[in-house]
């Protein structure tokens, strides 16, 4: 399928062709943008003549295919104006380093990682970039290279940790996706949104690795329910110490709601673990524990889960 819009729109590059990268590529193509997927070596196999065919299956048995340009990131040697970074948190710095010669202070960059701490890394190693942050609850998983399942419709918020307003490119991006019906917006509260996502991920993801279970199964027994409660208590104490008490009001209730809504999902951390690839634990529980340590707060339940996941990774 090709988009029928003829109006020229900004050309987006997407670094990272996993589930979220392919999902947003499909949204952009549907809304009339041209897209280039920047892939790693392992994904080259799915490319045909510098093109990728993205297949998006939905849970209602519908399936769509979208074609876009695709190339290994090391082959890019021109300026990139608009970039969405959908790599895993631990891969982001290296992935950006590989194309930093293509980025200028005017390039609009959206980081879409789980967890927190990537921004600090980038500021330290590649300062001066024009970075925005995205947080999404869209549910998608990868069946095979360029073939994804859009398992649940969610909300996406974009914002800037330094308080910048949306620029022209970003406003066009958001408006075009909204016209398609995608629930997306620009938020002045992105730090709070990222913290809340971090808190939910700390309470859910490593626990699903410990019990090797789907999210919903965490509610099946008293012991995991109690652990969730303790984890939430610790996470809230860390937020309080950093003056973010109001960001995590009713955290436990929010966590239980997310678990019920995503009951059939395997968390992203469990999926990484089952695929034998590194998890984002350093940017989720690891980030929380660093903040806790700086304020002399003990988080024994989070620490136990962190140690367990790290030990599994070897
Ligand atoms: O964001 C998630 C993840 O798996 O990383 C949750 C909310 C836990 C849904 O699975």
Summarize the structure.
This protein has 314 residues and is α/β, with parallel strands linked by helices. The chain has helices at residues 19-30, 89-98, 118-125, 168-180, 190-211, 222-241, 251-261, 268-274, 285-294, 300-313; strands at 12-15, 35-39, 51-58, 63-72, 82-85, 108-111, 130-136, 139-144, 147-152, 155-159, 183-186. Strand 3 (51-58) and strand 4 form a beta hairpin.
Note down, in words, how this protein is organized:
The protein has 314 residues and is an alpha/beta fold. The protein folds into two domains: 4-188, Rossmann fold, CATH 3.40.50.720; 192-313, N-(1-d-carboxylethyl)-l-norvaline Dehydrogenase, domain 2. The chain is built from ten helices and eleven strands. Strands 8-9-3-4-2-1-5-6-7-10-11 form an eleven-stranded mixed beta sheet, with helices on both faces. A hairpin with a 4-residue loop joins strand 3 and strand 4 (63-72). Helix 5 (190-211) crosses helix 7. It is globular, with a radius of gyration of 19 Å. Bound molecules: ketopantoate.
Task: Name its key features.
binds ketopantoate; N-(1-d-carboxylethyl)-l-norvaline Dehydrogenase, domain 2; single chain; disordered N terminus; Rossmann fold; 11 strands; alpha/beta; 314 residues; 40% helix
């Amino acid at each position: 399928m090709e988009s029928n819009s003829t109006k020229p729109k900004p050309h987006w590059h997407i670094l990272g062709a996993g589930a979220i990268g392919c999902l947003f590529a499909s949204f952009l193509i549907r809304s009339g943008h041209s897209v280039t997927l920047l892939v790693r070596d392992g994904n080259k196999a799915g490319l045909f003549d510098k093109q990728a065919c993205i297949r998006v299956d939905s849970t209602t048995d519908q399936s769509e295919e979208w074609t876009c340009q695709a190339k290994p990131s090391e082959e890019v040697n021109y300026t990139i104006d608009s970039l969405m970074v959908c790599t895993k948190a631990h891969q982001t710095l290296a992935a950006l380093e590989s194309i930093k010669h293509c980025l200028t202070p005017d390039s609009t960059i959206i980081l879409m990682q789980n967890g927190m701490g990537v921004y600090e890394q980038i500021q330290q190693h590649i300062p001066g970039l024009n970075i925005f942050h995205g947080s999404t609850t869209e549910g998608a998983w990868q069946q095979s290279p360029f073939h994804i399942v859009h398992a649940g419709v969610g909300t996406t918020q974009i914002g800037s940790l330094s308080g910048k307003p949306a620029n022209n490119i970003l406003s066009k991006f958001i408006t075009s996706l909204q016209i398609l019906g995608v629930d997306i917006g620009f938020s002045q509260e992105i730090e709070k949104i990222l913290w809340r996502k971090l808190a939910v991920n700390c309470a859910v993801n490593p626990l699903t690795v410990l019990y090797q279970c789907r999210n919903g199964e965490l509610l099946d027994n008293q012991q995991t329910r109690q652990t969730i409660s303790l984890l939430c208590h610790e996470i809230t104490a860390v937020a309080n110490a950093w003056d973010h008490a109001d960001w995590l009001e009713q955290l436990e209730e929010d966590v239980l709601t997310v678990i019920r809504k995503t009951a059939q999902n395997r968390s992203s951390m469990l999926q990484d673990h089952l695929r034998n690839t590194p998890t984002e634990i350093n940017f989720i529980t690891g980030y929380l524990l660093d903040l806790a340590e700086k304020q002399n707060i003990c988080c024994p339940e989070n620490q136990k889960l962190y140690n367990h996941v790290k030990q599994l990774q070897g």
